[in-house]
Design a protein that fits this description.
- The chain has a domain of about 55 residues.
- Helix 2 runs antiparallel to helix 4.
- The chain is about 50% helix and about 0% strand.
- It is mainly α.
- The chain starts with 15 loop residues before the first helix and ends in a 13-residue tail after the last helix.
Length: about 80
């Protein structure tokens, strides 16, 4: 029996696992889109959020999930959505 990941209980403090699953060519595009949509003004904010150094705010969670879903990835676990 395979254990399914319950993403509602996953701590949403960083999206490092999802980011590492992206192809390098997609990482830049995702970073720029996420920075724009979340209103992060510097790349250091993005990297600090990605690593969990800065907390991810509740309004940012659906934005992050929506952007990662375009790549068929769960940002919190790095698993494929389908």
């Amino acid at each position: 029996m395979v254990n399914e990941i319950n993403t509602t209980k996953v701590v949403k403090s960083d999206f490092q696992k999802g980011y590492e699953m992206l192809l390098p060519r997609d990482q830049r595009e995702l970073r720029l889109k996420m920075m724009f949509e979340c209103g992060w003004l510097t790349a250091s904010t993005f990297y600090n959020k990605r690593k969990g150094v800065q907390p991810i705010l509740k309004p940012e969670i659906p934005i992050i999930e929506s952007i990662f879903s375009e790549y068929n990835l769960d940002p919190w676990t790095g698993e494929n959505l389908t």
